[in-house]
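B., you asked whether I could sanity-check this one before it goes into the benchmark set. Here's the sequence:
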Amino acid sequence: MKEKIKAKVMDSRKIRRAVHRMTTEIIERNRNLKNLVIVGIRTRGIYLGKKISKLIKELEKVDIPVGVLDITLYRDDFSKIEAQHMVRKTEINFSVAKKDILLVDDVLFTGRTIRAAMDSLIDLGRPKSIQLLVLIDRGHRELPIRADYVGKFLPTSKRELVQVKLKEIDNCDEVLITEPIKLK
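And here's what the prediction gave me:
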Protein backbone atom coordinates (compact mmCIF):
# COMPACT_ATOMS: atom_id res chain seq x y z
CA MET A 1 0.00 0.00 0.00
CA LYS A 2 1.36 3.41 -0.95
CA GLU A 3 1.15 6.47 1.25
CA LYS A 4 0.51 10.12 0.52
CA ILE A 5 2.56 12.65 2.47
CA LYS A 6 0.16 15.10 4.13
CA ALA A 7 2.67 17.14 6.13
CA LYS A 8 6.29 17.32 7.20
CA VAL A 9 6.00 18.28 10.86
CA MET A 10 9.63 18.09 11.95
CA ASP A 11 12.93 18.43 10.14
CA SER A 12 16.42 17.65 11.44
CA ARG A 13 16.70 21.03 13.21
CA LYS A 14 13.38 20.60 15.04
CA ILE A 15 14.22 17.01 16.01
CA ARG A 16 17.63 18.10 17.32
CA ARG A 17 16.01 20.89 19.37
CA ALA A 18 13.38 18.53 20.80
CA VAL A 19 16.01 15.95 21.77
CA HIS A 20 18.13 18.68 23.42
CA ARG A 21 15.13 20.04 25.36
CA MET A 22 14.09 16.58 26.55
CA THR A 23 17.68 15.77 27.56
CA THR A 24 17.80 18.93 29.67
CA GLU A 25 14.53 17.88 31.34
CA ILE A 26 15.99 14.41 32.03
CA ILE A 27 19.08 15.95 33.67
CA GLU A 28 16.92 18.25 35.82
CA ARG A 29 14.63 15.42 36.94
CA ASN A 30 17.31 12.77 37.58
CA ARG A 31 19.70 14.13 40.19
CA ASN A 32 21.55 10.80 40.36
CA LEU A 33 22.51 10.32 36.71
CA LYS A 34 24.81 7.45 37.70
CA ASN A 35 21.70 5.34 38.43
CA LEU A 36 20.11 6.16 35.06
CA VAL A 37 20.14 3.71 32.15
CA ILE A 38 18.52 4.12 28.75
CA VAL A 39 16.59 1.36 27.00
CA GLY A 40 15.57 2.02 23.41
CA ILE A 41 12.69 0.10 21.88
CA ARG A 42 13.61 -1.39 18.52
CA THR A 43 14.13 0.23 16.09
CA ARG A 44 14.13 4.01 16.21
CA GLY A 45 14.02 4.20 20.00
CA ILE A 46 17.56 2.83 20.01
CA TYR A 47 18.94 5.73 18.00
CA LEU A 48 17.00 8.35 19.94
CA GLY A 49 18.36 6.79 23.14
CA LYS A 50 21.93 6.95 21.83
CA LYS A 51 21.50 10.63 20.91
CA ILE A 52 20.30 11.37 24.46
CA SER A 53 23.15 9.39 26.04
CA LYS A 54 25.69 11.26 23.91
CA LEU A 55 24.18 14.62 24.84
CA ILE A 56 24.18 13.79 28.57
CA LYS A 57 27.87 12.85 28.23
CA GLU A 58 28.58 16.22 26.56
CA LEU A 59 26.59 18.25 29.09
CA GLU A 60 27.23 16.39 32.35
CA LYS A 61 30.31 14.21 31.68
CA VAL A 62 28.39 11.07 32.75
CA ASP A 63 28.27 7.90 30.66
CA ILE A 64 24.73 6.56 30.45
CA PRO A 65 24.54 2.98 29.14
CA VAL A 66 22.07 2.31 26.32
CA GLY A 67 20.34 -1.03 25.88
CA VAL A 68 18.19 -2.39 23.07
CA LEU A 69 14.78 -3.91 23.77
CA ASP A 70 12.89 -6.15 21.38
CA ILE A 71 9.28 -6.49 22.55
CA THR A 72 7.97 -8.81 19.84
CA LEU A 73 7.19 -11.74 22.16
CA TYR A 74 5.41 -9.41 24.61
CA ARG A 75 3.05 -7.83 22.08
CA ASP A 76 -0.63 -8.64 22.35
CA ASP A 77 -1.25 -8.32 18.60
CA PHE A 78 1.12 -10.93 17.16
CA SER A 79 0.53 -14.65 16.98
CA LYS A 80 3.38 -16.92 18.08
CA ILE A 81 3.89 -18.07 14.48
CA GLU A 82 4.26 -14.50 13.18
CA ALA A 83 6.52 -13.57 16.07
CA GLN A 84 9.02 -16.36 15.32
CA HIS A 85 9.96 -14.62 12.08
CA MET A 86 10.17 -11.15 13.58
CA VAL A 87 11.99 -11.66 16.88
CA ARG A 88 15.26 -9.82 17.14
CA LYS A 89 17.71 -9.65 19.97
CA THR A 90 17.30 -7.72 23.20
CA GLU A 91 20.73 -6.34 24.05
CA ILE A 92 20.85 -5.06 27.60
CA ASN A 93 24.36 -5.54 28.98
CA PHE A 94 23.61 -4.11 32.41
CA SER A 95 21.31 -4.96 35.29
CA VAL A 96 17.96 -3.16 35.29
CA ALA A 97 17.38 -4.03 38.96
CA LYS A 98 17.14 -0.92 41.15
CA LYS A 99 17.96 1.33 38.17
CA ASP A 100 16.10 4.40 36.95
CA ILE A 101 15.22 3.32 33.42
CA LEU A 102 14.55 5.80 30.64
CA LEU A 103 12.46 3.87 28.13
CA VAL A 104 12.68 5.49 24.68
CA ASP A 105 10.42 5.11 21.64
CA ASP A 106 9.73 7.19 18.57
CA VAL A 107 5.90 7.38 18.58
CA LEU A 108 3.38 6.89 21.37
CA PHE A 109 -0.01 5.85 20.00
CA THR A 110 -2.28 3.30 21.73
CA GLY A 111 0.15 2.54 24.57
CA ARG A 112 0.33 -1.18 23.79
CA THR A 113 3.99 -1.11 22.73
CA ILE A 114 4.93 0.60 26.00
CA ARG A 115 2.93 -1.91 28.05
CA ALA A 116 4.78 -4.73 26.29
CA ALA A 117 8.12 -3.00 26.89
CA MET A 118 7.42 -2.60 30.62
CA ASP A 119 6.43 -6.28 30.89
CA SER A 120 9.68 -7.23 29.17
CA LEU A 121 11.80 -4.98 31.42
CA ILE A 122 10.22 -6.26 34.61
CA ASP A 123 11.00 -9.83 33.53
CA LEU A 124 14.67 -8.76 33.51
CA GLY A 125 14.59 -7.37 37.06
CA ARG A 126 12.76 -4.87 39.26
CA PRO A 127 13.77 -1.33 38.32
CA LYS A 128 13.66 1.53 40.82
CA SER A 129 11.63 3.53 38.28
CA ILE A 130 10.67 3.59 34.62
CA GLN A 131 10.34 6.91 32.81
CA LEU A 132 9.07 7.18 29.25
CA LEU A 133 10.43 9.42 26.51
CA VAL A 134 8.85 9.65 23.06
CA LEU A 135 9.64 11.92 20.16
CA ILE A 136 5.96 12.06 19.09
CA ASP A 137 2.78 11.62 21.14
CA ARG A 138 -0.09 11.29 18.69
CA GLY A 139 -2.89 10.48 21.14
CA HIS A 140 -5.52 7.72 20.71
CA ARG A 141 -4.51 5.85 23.88
CA GLU A 142 -6.12 2.50 24.61
CA LEU A 143 -4.22 2.03 27.88
CA PRO A 144 -3.57 4.52 30.71
CA ILE A 145 0.00 5.31 29.66
CA ARG A 146 1.56 8.74 29.33
CA ALA A 147 5.09 9.87 28.50
CA ASP A 148 7.25 11.79 30.98
CA TYR A 149 9.14 13.50 28.15
CA VAL A 150 7.57 14.37 24.78
CA GLY A 151 9.28 15.96 21.81
CA LYS A 152 6.03 17.00 20.14
CA PHE A 153 2.33 16.42 20.75
CA LEU A 154 0.83 15.71 17.35
CA PRO A 155 -2.95 15.20 17.22
CA THR A 156 -3.79 12.92 14.32
CA SER A 157 -6.73 10.96 13.01
CA LYS A 158 -6.60 7.19 13.40
CA ARG A 159 -6.42 6.89 9.61
CA GLU A 160 -3.23 8.95 9.45
CA LEU A 161 0.21 7.47 9.99
CA VAL A 162 3.16 9.13 11.67
CA GLN A 163 6.54 8.25 10.18
CA VAL A 164 9.67 9.09 12.11
CA LYS A 165 12.77 8.93 9.96
CA LEU A 166 16.23 9.01 11.46
CA LYS A 167 19.46 9.40 9.52
CA GLU A 168 20.97 6.27 11.10
CA ILE A 169 18.33 4.17 9.31
CA ASP A 170 16.59 6.37 6.76
CA ASN A 171 19.41 8.76 5.74
CA CYS A 172 17.45 11.79 6.98
CA ASP A 173 15.87 13.15 10.16
CA GLU A 174 12.20 14.07 9.73
CA VAL A 175 8.71 13.36 10.95
CA LEU A 176 5.91 13.00 8.40
CA ILE A 177 2.16 12.59 8.59
CA THR A 178 1.03 10.28 5.82
CA GLU A 179 -2.21 8.71 4.73
CA PRO A 180 -2.67 5.37 2.96
CA ILE A 181 -3.60 5.54 -0.72
CA LYS A 182 -5.83 2.78 -2.03
CA LEU A 183 -4.47 1.40 -5.28
CA LYS A 184 -6.99 0.51 -7.95
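One thing to flag: The chain is about 30% helix and 30% strand. Otherwise nothing jumped out at me.
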